[in-house]
């Protein structure tokens, strides 16, 4: 490597105040000691628990080899902040462990720019890290804080609760098909007919997801359960229902799929016949990477959603209910959905 490990860190990643400074993270919680010592020191607000999550992104597996350095840096951080959002926790700091085959200064500058563009937007300091030589991968560990009684968990959903999601679903699935040049033949014409703006939107949703941190904080004390949509709505909903089952036996859900929040790019596909509708639903239901929040609400809380959506400038949609009957009952305008979706979702219960 042209630069040694320490040179790399300093040049591209050591840009936060290193000691005794309130970096502006979260609610003004100081990073007592940041990058540069053997470990960082964080002060948590009294009475709050530390929320910790970590995710590794491997080149070719978690992002296409064609992804830009900027997008890789952004996404490595975004997926971790999304997990903090799903817990209703406030991010306080992140660490980055970087494995690189070589030290390409332009590539590292791009990675750093993507990472810090999101970190700065969310006020999250980088408080430590590591670099090693090897196949490209990034591991981010995100640290947040939340009063334990207010943490959003997966295990609190109850029969009758509303099932809600933020933003729109399926755009990342379309984006991945575009990025891999793997648009299914049945919708190839419809996708080709999309505007450049619609295609760019889908690719941006794949490469630069928005962690829903403000929503996670706003759902404290309101949502009965929450998680982020990383593996596809149906699979993730299955995880939430399984966690919430408790001693009362398995839970299920009835979804009214016409209420799925979809971007104009996705709904444009529905106009291209049955194949288009099925692909639209497959991307929205069975492909991950949207990083929206999936959450459940007691029925009485539904009336609070419009004001919350307005305040956050983020669409919030209720798409169904938790049921005592196990399994997923999927309806499209009242009709039982009869399409094959990948993922074996019917087998989770
Ligand atoms: Mg998650």
From TrEMBL:
Annotated positions binding Mg(2+) 3: 38, 83, 228
Enzyme class: transferase
Catalytic activity from the UniProt record: thiamine phosphate + ATP = thiamine diphosphate + ADP
Chain positions recorded as Mg(2+) 1 binding sites: 54-55, 130
Origin: domain of life: Bacteria
Keywords associated with the record: ATP-binding, Kinase, Magnesium, Metal-binding, Nucleotide-binding, Thiamine biosynthesis, Transferase
Binding residue positions for Mg(2+) 2: 55, 83
Occurrences of domain PurM-like C-terminal (ranges): 158-332
Chain residues that bind Mg(2+) 4: 38, 53, 83
Primary role: Catalyzes the ATP-dependent phosphorylation of thiamine-monophosphate (TMP) to form thiamine-pyrophosphate (TPP), the active form of vitamin B1.
Protein's name according to its UniProt entry: Thiamine-monophosphate kinase
Source organism: Amnimonas aquatica
Lineage: Bacteria, Pseudomonadati, Pseudomonadota, Gammaproteobacteria, Moraxellales
